[in-house]
Specification:
Blueprint: H1 2-25, E1 98-105, H2 107-110, E2 124-125, H3 145-150, E3 164-165, H4 188-201, E4 211-217, H5 220-224, H6 236-253, E5 257-262, H7 276-285, H8 294-315, E6 326-331, H9 361-375
Parallel strand pairs: 1-4, 4-5, 5-6
Antiparallel strand pairs: 2-3
Helix pairs in contact: 1-7, 4-6, 6-8
Length: 413
């Protein structure tokens, strides 16, 4: 499986090089020094016993200070939350109670291409601005789940920072972002074991007492290879079984965790992203989801819908809701998501990286906002599509908790 993932990245790297040569040879190409900038870590930290460095912690801002959202150009809208005694139930978590973030997934979580301005920068990981786990700067710099949580006033550990070329080892902190480019669902269990191993030795983390938010987003690669004769992970049932096995590992090994199980993104949206560069890259990024054959794309779409149905059922299984220190919450905001459009009706390319497929920095911010809002919304009311115009939902005195299947976000009925 590891070789399989590496092969996907190598292919993508080769195609990127071809596109760069083409652009230098005749297409318009604009690159500035700033487009190659690597965001600096926020703290220097010290090595912990696991050998990594924790550079992800950012001191909370001063009370009353105004910070501006890159996505919405508005001050952080929510009041700071005072952290009281550590709760003993996952159903009574406020944002201030979250001390650790972690993420499993594929290139949508590694931040592949997210900070790129041209194909010349492909392939590069921008884990520091990844929607569910990025820790670069603060909310005023990048809207990510960790930066949203930090803005409430408490420190958070485990966020990944910085950027690097795909083939280089980490010289900065990858945090508890164990996502792997090209990963498919049957590799997810190994990521769960990996993140558990990292948590046990991670500086400033108590795996037994600290509350954690762990986000899982996997499946785009499974769908993109659905029409491949060599793919072994085509059936929705097999995909969901792999996810369920991963959840079982997490429940067994990791105490005090709120798991976000994010529904799969139907990759056929990318078919409408057309240009000479996009057309070259589509065949390698997602051959089935961007196939010229309408029937193939329809099959991918149908599989994505079936996966959503099965995932929602798995997330609601009683075994994930029968203790006070673990929950799996299905976040369905991709269920009915189609390609976002501009007022003129064209695909909103500002949300996508130069590879015409993965999220740009802005796209990551929109996804982070959708994830947070879903965490703050009761199951029956959760959004089933994303919008770049959605405001951030704040906890309130009436509904102060992260929402679970049973707590109604803390609201009294």
């Amino acid at each position: 499986s590891h070789c399989h993932s590496q092969m996907r990245v190598t292919i993508l790297s080769t195609v990127a090089a071809v596109v760069v040569i083409g652009q230098v040879g005749g297409w318009a190409l604009s690159v500035t020094d700033s487009s190659l900038h690597v965001p600096p870590p926020q703290n220097h930290g010290t090595p912990h016993s696991g050998g990594d460095m924790d550079l992800s912690i950012v001191e909370p801002r001063e009370a009353g200070a105004s910070i501006t959202s890159v996505a919405g150009s508005t001050p952080f809208p929510c009041a700071r939350v005072t952290r009281g005694d550590t709760p003993t139930s996952v159903h009574k978590l406020t944002p201030a109670d979250i001390h650790v973030v972690a993420a499993l997934g594929d290139s949508f979580t590694t931040g592949l291409h997210a900070g790129a301005r041209t194909v010349l920068e492909i392939p590069r990981e921008y884990r520091g601005i990844s929607w569910s786990i990025g820790g670069d700067g603060t909310f005023s710099d990048h809207v990510t789940l960790p930066n949203i949580i930090r803005a409430f006033g408490s420190p958070v550990y485990g966020a990944s920072v910085g950027a690097k070329a795909v083939d280089l080892p980490w010289i900065i902190d990858g945090g508890l972002n164990v996502a792997v480019n090209g990963a498919v669902a049957d590799e997810l269990r190994f990521q769960a074991l990996n993140v558990f191993s990292k948590m046990k030795v991670y500086r400033n983390i108590s795996i037994e007492t600290d509350w954690k938010v762990l986000t899982i987003f996997i499946g785009v690669n499974d769908l993109c290879e659905q029409c491949s004769e060599t793919s072994s992970a085509l059936a929705p049932e097999a995909y969901v079984k792999s996810v369920e096995e991963t959840l079982d590992v997490l429940k067994q090994d990791v105490p005090r965790v709120y798991v976000n199980l994010v529904g799969v993104l139907d990759p056929t949206f990318a078919f409408e992203m057309r240009s000479p560069t996009c057309d070259v890259l589509h065949g390698n990024n997602c051959p089935c989801g961007t196939s010229e054959d309408d029937k193939v794309r329809a099959e991918v779409n149908a599989t994505a819908k079936r996966i959503h149905e099965l995932l929602e059922k798995v997330a609601s299984a009683e075994k994930y809701h029968d203790t006070d220190d673990f929950t799996v919450e299905y976040q369905p905001f991709y269920t009915e998501t189609t390609i976002p459009r501009t007022p003129s009706g064209d695909p909103d390319r500002a949300l996508f990286a130069p590879d015409c497929f993965r999220f740009s920095g802005l796209g990551n911010e929109v996804a982070a906002t959708a994830l947070w809002n879903s965490m703050m919304t009761p199951p029956a009311e959760k959004a089933r599509r994303i919008s770049r115009d959605d405001p951030l939902i704040c906890p309130s005195a009436a509904a102060p908790y992260l929402c679970t299947a049973t707590n109604n976000c803390g609201a009294q009925t």
